[in-house]
C-alpha cells in the first residue's frame, strides 16, 4: 500500500475540498480491503506484543471526529486482536468539576502512556479548542493561545520518548445523518443516541472551521495529524491500521536478549 501522508506543518486545510468518501488510496474495493485489514490487524497483534516486551517506547494515538465519525469503530476493528495488557483507551467526556478546577491538560497528562504501553485517546485535549471554542465556553483569548500550548506539550512528550499519531476521522454531513438515523431506527443502538449530538450537528460548519484550525496549526513533525476519509468504515480502518503497522515496523524493535542471563538456569 502507498504511504498515507499527514498534514504538513502549517499547511492550510480546507475540509470542504477533501472528500470523506475518497477511495484513491485503495482502489481494489471493499472485499480486498477487508482482507488486507485482517492481515494488518494480525501484524498489529504481533507488533504490539513486541512493543510491550521491548518496553522502550510509548505510543499515544489521538482520535477526534464528529459524533458517529467512527472513533469507537476504529478502537473495535483496528485493535480487536491486541493484548489488553499494554493497550488502553482513555475517554474524555465533559470535564468533571475537579477536572475543571485544574488546567485543561491536567486530566490529559495523567493518561499518557508509560513505557511499552499504547494508549488510545477517544477525544482528547483537542476538545479544548473545538467544543470549547464552538460553544463559547471560554473567551477567544484563552482558547486561541492553546494551539501553541498543545504543540509545546506534545513536543515535550515526544522528546521524552512518546510517539504521537493523531487521526481526524473525516465524515460528510450526509453520512452523519444516515448514521444517526440508523441509531434511531435500531433499538439495539438507542443507547448510542444522544439528543445532544443534534446540537453539535447544527453547528457543523463552525466545527469544521474549528477543525481546520486544529489541523493547520497543530500538525507537527513530532505529532502529525492524519485526515482519514471515513465515510467508508472499512477504508478508514484500513488506512489507520496501515499507518500503525508502518510506524511500529519503523521502530525496528527486537525482543530483549536474555540468552546469556538465562543460560545458567536449570529447572529441577
Ligand atoms: P461522547 O464522546 O459522544 O460520549 O461525548 C462526550 C462529550 O463530551 C462530547 O460531546 C464532547 O464534546 C464533550 N467533551 C469532551 N471534552 C470536553 C471538554 N474539554 N469540554 C467540554 N466538553 C467536552
Ligand atoms: Mg456524543
UniProtKB/TrEMBL annotation:
Residues forming the Polyphosphate kinase-2-related domain are: 30-250
A GO biological process of this protein is:
polyphosphate metabolic process
Residue ranges of coiled coil? none
Annotated InterPro entries: P-loop_NTPase, Polyphosphate_phosphotransfera, PPK2-rel_1, PPK2-related
Query: Which NCBIfam families does the entry link to?
Result: PPK2_rel_1
Query: Which organism is this entry from?
Result: Ornatilinea apprima
Query: GO MF terms on file?
Result: polyphosphate kinase activity
Origin, by domain of life? Bacteria
- What is this protein called in UniProt? Polyphosphate kinase
Question: Does this UniProt record's set of keywords contain Phosphoprotein?
Answer: no
Which keywords annotate this record? Kinase, Transferase
Task: Quote the Pfam families the UniProt record gives.
Answer: PPK2
Amino acid at each position: 500500500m502507498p504511504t498515507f501522508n499527514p498534514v504538513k506543518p502549517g499547511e492550510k486545510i480546507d475540509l470542504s475540498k477533501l472528500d470523506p468518501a475518497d477511495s484513491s488510496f485503495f482502489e481494489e474495493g471493499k472485499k480486498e480491503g477487508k482482507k488486507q485489514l485482517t492481515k494488518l490487524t494480525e501484524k498489529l497483534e504481533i507488533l504490539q506484543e513486541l512493543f510491550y516486551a521491548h518496553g522502550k517506547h510509548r505510543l499515544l494515538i489521538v482520535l477526534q471526529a464528529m459524533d458517529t465519525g467512527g472513533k469507537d469503530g476504529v478502537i473495535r476493528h483496528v485493535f480487536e486482536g491486541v493484548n489488553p495488557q499494554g493497550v488502553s483507551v482513555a475517554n474524555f467526556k465533559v470535564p468533571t468539576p475537579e477536572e475543571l478546577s485544574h488546567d485543561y491538560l491536567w486530566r490529559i497528562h495523567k493518561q499518557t502512556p508509560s513505557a511499552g504501553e499504547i494508549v488510545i485517546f477517544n477525544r482528547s485535549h483537542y476538545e479544548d479548542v473545538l467544543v470549547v471554542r464552538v460553544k463559547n465556553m471560554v473567551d477567544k483569548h484563552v482558547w486561541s493561545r492553546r494551539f501553541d500550548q498543545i504543540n509545546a506539550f506534545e513536543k515535550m512528550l515526544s522528546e521524552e520518548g512518546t510517539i504521537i499519531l493523531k487521526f481526524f476521522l473525516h465524515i460528510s454531513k450526509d453520512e452523519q445523518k444516515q448514521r444517526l438515523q440508523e441509531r434511531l431506527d435500531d433499538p439495539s443502538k438507542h443507547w448510542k443516541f444522544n439528543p445532544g449530538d443534534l446540537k453539535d450537528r447544527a453547528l457543523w460548519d463552525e466545527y469544521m472551521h474549528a477543525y481546520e484550525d486544529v489541523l493547520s496549526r497543530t500538525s507537527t513533525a513530532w505529532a502529525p495529524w492524519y485526515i482519514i476519509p471515513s465515510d467508508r468504515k472499512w477504508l478508514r480502518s484500513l488506512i489507520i491500521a496501515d499507518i500503525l503497522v508502518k510506524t511500529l515496523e519503523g521502530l525496528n524493535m527486537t525482543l530483549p536478549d536474555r540468552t546469556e542471563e538465562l543460560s545458567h538456569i536449570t529447572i529441577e
